[in-house]
Fold:
Amino acid sequence: MKHILLTGGAGFIGSNYLNHILNERDDYFIVNLDKLTYAGNLENLKGIENNKNYRFVKGDICNRELVDYIFQKYSIKYVINFAAESHVDRSILGSEIFYQTNVIGTNVLLETARRYNVEKFLQVSTDEVYGSLGAEGLFTENTPLSPNSPYSSSKAAADMMVNAFYHTYGMPVVTTRCSNNYGPLQFPEKLIPLMTINAMHDKKLPVYGDGLNVRDWIYVIDHNKAINLVFEKGRTGEVYNIGASREMKNIDIVKLLLKAVGKDESLIEYVKDRPGHDRRYAIDSSKIQTELGWKPEFEFEQAIENTINWYKQNRNWWERIISGEYVKYYNNLYMNR
Ligand code: NAD
Ligand code: TDX
Structure:
């Protein structure tokens, strides 16, 4: 039995991971440590809450005593660190919590993992640590880190710390860097759910700048399968890029979503650009493909349709979210644009 501490499992990617993996593996015992910030939602985990190989602990990865207690109580030997403040716009509104959770929190996990001699520490990172690309080229694992937002700089700091623990202490770490995810259970602050839900409500779709920024999209299940492969077989000390080679201009995504929801393009509203807005991300994932035999399984057209249908069929899930604190956040961010 592998005793795993998984952090941030009530968020978008972590909950998709848990829902999938606990049905697939009976040799994983997983403790999910999640602070339940605005982005964490236990509703996402209804299907597995009674699984005998699963425990939930509400708490902060920055809490040393709690993290130590979990390692001891559950004989933790593996860590998968999903927990983070994850939204770029929020990091621009206020950066402190990003450095607290993403940097200090990762340090607490690493220090505790070191004391308990973990057998593997997987850091879930992002392609945003590489900065921004021009019209040509792809991020490889050798692209120098050059983060531009408070969010991405906090993730890059964590990546460097993970690397330092490998070099200094020989800790068995591995890092994944993935491109933009989409799929069910994504918090509606992110581009795809935000635009889908606004369109359903006949609300304006706020496209930043000229709408020509490019993101490289991957279905969340493909990301999670890659994470699991790296967790099982990734070489210690290595970084693995994950991406499905599906570059899209923001405006094209927005038009596609409008069509799928049956709404008119007149809902599009170009608004003031995001400060420091990275122009283009694009991932070279040939390392994980050749070394570990991973490849994306989902076609973009089919997976985006699944995603839109999920939002159409799960209004209860997002209506509860957008009726609370989210209204304040939304008005604060978008009123001045
Ligand atoms: P999310 O915001 O949906 O979820 C984050 C989860 O972490 C939430 O459940 C939240 O409650 C929890 N959390 C936050 N602070 C915490 C703390 N201090 N202690 C314990 N739990 C805490 O994020 P996501 O989109 O699921 O992203 C998960 C990870 O994947 C992050 O590390 C992110 O940087 C990375 N990533 C995301 C994407 C993407 O497109 N969403 C792409 C690449 C990498
Ligand atoms: O209202 C919007 N209008 C708009 O034009 C929003 C929310 C976004 N955008 C643009 C900004 C980006 O170019 O859409 C693109 C995607 O934006 P986000 O969904 O905020 O994602 P991004 O900033 O690219 O970061 C995401 O991918 C990498 C995740 O939020 C990160 O957690 C991950 O690391």
Notes: The chain has twelve helices and twelve strands. The longest helix spans residues 96-115. The longest strand covers residues 28-34. The radius of gyration is 19 Å.
